[in-house]
Amino acid sequence: MNRLVVVSNRVPAPSAGTQAGGLAVALDGLMEKRGGLWFGWSGVIAAGAAGRPAMIERSGSVEYATIDLTQDEHDRYYNAFSNSVLWPLLHTMPELMQYDRRDARVYREVNARMAAALQPLLRPTDLIWVHDYHLMPMAAALRARGVRNPIGFFLHIPFCSPDVLAAAPEMTELVREMLSADLIGFQTDNDVTNFAAAAQVLAGAMRGPGNSLFFGGRRIRLGVFPVEIEARSFAARAAEMAESPAVRRLRRDLEGQRLILGVERLDPTKGLLQRLVGLRRLLEKRQDWRGHLTMLQIAAMSRKDVESYRALRTALDREAGALNADLGEPDWQPLRLVARGVERSTVAGYMRLARVGLVTPLRDGMNLVAKEFVAAQDPADPGVLVLSRFAGSARQLEAALLVNPHDPDAMADALDSALRMGLEERQARWRALWAAIEHRSPLVWGRSFVAALLRASTLTVAKTPVPL
Length: 468
Ligand code: F6P
Prior knowledge:
Belongs to the glycosyltransferase 20 family. The protein is an alpha/beta fold.
């Protein structure tokens, strides 16, 4: 079996503490089972990091190789270009971009430096799998160093349409660089369509047979690989946690009020302010809910060095305060806002307690919280998922109440229906949702990408382009 080399910005190396997010959770199982090399940033910012080789650690069958970043690299590659340009742009929120071409230069330099540190660790039969928007030039940087191994790239976040994409001057070049991979994977077919269009319109690629493109005399496969959760184990955890002290305390505290739950990182893409407007509209339109529901919004502060995240925190604090002040009573508040992270197991228990899971991003690659909410429910008395139609997971979770998060009345109506929904309909919807996630897992997801990469790498050799 070929060794798998995963390349990602965050790496769950033993020395990296708890810094890894959703991407690492998705890949952990595969790496544990298959073994291999995991390469990326150590999570450490260190002066003089630039010249040093990768630090190697081992845990079980996985070897971790990481490099530190300098403060300037971290500011420009991670905070600025990755999170203040690529993140908003690819989520179709170009108005939030903070573009500076010097950041783009450092982003490229960090990718080149990572490729240089990775190259000596590679073996000729390795399969290389690069992840996410931090590393869009990585395949090209490795090819420039003579690496001939199969390379796959997976984007965990959405890919916007070509006209939006053009707002950042680097995008044509970055799309070309992505095309150095043999297989490029996305969360949804919409992302594939957008990327294929950008590759043709901006980079001059030509459409090939099936889901493929021709570029530079090579054939590149595109594919849809929706990220999944370990549904059964999450369900078991939620059932167990339903009787934990933290969940009991919350249940007691709610005194029979219906719980609406939102859980995410505090991020401009998540539609947090729109959600509060929707709640306000519900309580204005249907006054009988006053005193009978509580919304708990967990919005863990993240990327606090990025201005738009800090601004969102301020706006959210203001709106939450205004909502409670305008609509609350001496003995009741509609909203509880927590801007700290809450332990995943406890969240699983809260999800089981909730009557409504409110997952309404303005745009989201997949959104695993929606899948976790489904898995956490008690099949005998399940809660209702209210889900944004702009989340990638809406394509699989069609039995949820799908809403447009920009429309406060639609949000209020969906919340009202969810809160009033009878047991039979809740059960029927839940069964359909569960069927969509039950037999899937991150392991199956990872294996299907790796199998597709092996197939794709035999196809990449020069073939005659098919005219459009
Ligand atoms: O794909 C999006 C992602 O990179 C996830 O892996 C992760 O959950 C999240 O964003 C966290 O981002 P950061 O690494 O910036 O904390």
